[in-house]
């Protein structure tokens, strides 16, 4: 690899419980001593569960009393449904999914009328606050820290919103993770937000269009949703799975397409020299056996397995970079 550090931005796609994989990837990447010497992290971005992982990675790097790998592992260990009430709730979610796959009608309740939704919101916020001291964040900002971009969708205006590192709060993170049928729209400063999957999943083009920070040499996308499938789904469950994947990839493909178009214009000499070429690499979640409903599964063994899958994927990515010289997998 080059002796000059390469600047890298890391973008984390959303995917509920599946983003325990993202946590494993980030843990492995950010604890690699060789990579730490050869790569300068320019920023993190994330949506939904990816937003939580991006926050923890950013905060773990910047706070002197924390390490990102430990913080990510502890958070997902706490996220797991371990107590009797949590396990009961998790089993209810799993059985509801099984019944729906069999075509059996199940009750539908608005999150505004569901005590479980209100309890889940409070638990989500409490979990974030146990692992991140949001009041300490302003003291971590001196202009040298990596960027942090958290995506959410404004329910009323239909516009996307990016929360930056100086705007962080538990509510801002929940705004990116508020799945409409699970949580009420989250209010932040008088505006109401839903899951960032409706906007940018995850934010990418701001890394190359934001003049506040230099363009990164590379953007690493931790990708949850498969891009391709070998055959057309015909079961209702298969159709629902593929629809979820396509919806989750739509904005990502648009964001990556913008970067690739910019690269073409740079190569053709259409843009000023301040614009530089940016490679986009992907670290993929390779579990085609998991349907979209498992994105709500919080069983400990499931999350631990996904975290380990992420560590393995990151190790393979780093090995491939070492072998090929900055090329991803």
TrEMBL record:
GO terms for molecular function: hydrolase activity. Pfam families: Patatin. GO terms for biological process: lipid catabolic process. InterPro entries: Acyl_Trfase/lysoPLipase, NTE, PNPLA_dom. The keyword Membrane does not apply. Keywords: Hydrolase, Lipid degradation, Lipid metabolism. Coiled coil: none annotated. Residues 10-208 form the PNPLA domain. This is Putative esterase of the alpha-beta hydrolase superfamily. It comes from Natronococcus occultus SP4.
């Amino acid at each position: 690899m080059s002796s000059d550090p390469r600047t890298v931005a890391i973008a984390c796609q959303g995917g509920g419980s599946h983003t325990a994989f993202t946590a494993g990837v980030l843990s492995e990447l950010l604890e690699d001593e060789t990579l730490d010497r050869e790569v300068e992290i320019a920023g993190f971005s994330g949506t939904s569960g990816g937003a939580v992982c991006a926050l923890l990675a950013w905060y773990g790097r910047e706070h002197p009393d924390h390490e990102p790998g430990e913080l990510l592992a502890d958070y997902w260990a706490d996220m797991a449904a371990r107590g009797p009430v949590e396990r009961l709730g998790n089993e209810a979610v799993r059985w509801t999914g099984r019944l729906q796959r069999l075509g059996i009608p199940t009750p539908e309740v608005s999150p505004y009328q569901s005590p479980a939704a209100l309890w889940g919101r409070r638990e989500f916020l409490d979990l974030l606050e146990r692992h991140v001291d949001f009041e300490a964040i302003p003291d971590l900002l001196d202009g040298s820290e990596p960027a942090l971009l958290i995506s959410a969708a404004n329910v009323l205006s239909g516009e996307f919103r990016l929360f930056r590192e100086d705007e962080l709060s538990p509510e801002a993170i929940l705004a990116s993770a508020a799945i409409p049928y699970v949580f009420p729209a989250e209010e932040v400063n008088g505006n109401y937000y839903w899951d960032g999957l409706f906007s940018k999943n995850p934010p990418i083009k701001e890394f190359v269009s934001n003049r506040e920070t230099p363009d990164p040499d590379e953007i690493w996308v931790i990708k949850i949703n498969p891009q391709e499938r070998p055959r057309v789904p015909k079961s209702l469950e298969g159709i629902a799975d593929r629809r979820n994947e396509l919806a989750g990839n739509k904005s990502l493909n648009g964001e990556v397409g913008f970067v690739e178009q910019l690269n073409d214009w740079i190569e053709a000499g259409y843009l000023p020299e301040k614009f530089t070429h940016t490679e986009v690499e992907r670290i993929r979640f390779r579990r085609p056996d998991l349907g979209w409903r498992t994105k709500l599964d919080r069983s400990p063994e499931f999350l631990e397995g996904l975290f380990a899958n992420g560590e393995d994927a990151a190790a393979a990515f780093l090995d491939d970079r070492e072998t090929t010289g900055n090329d991803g997998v």
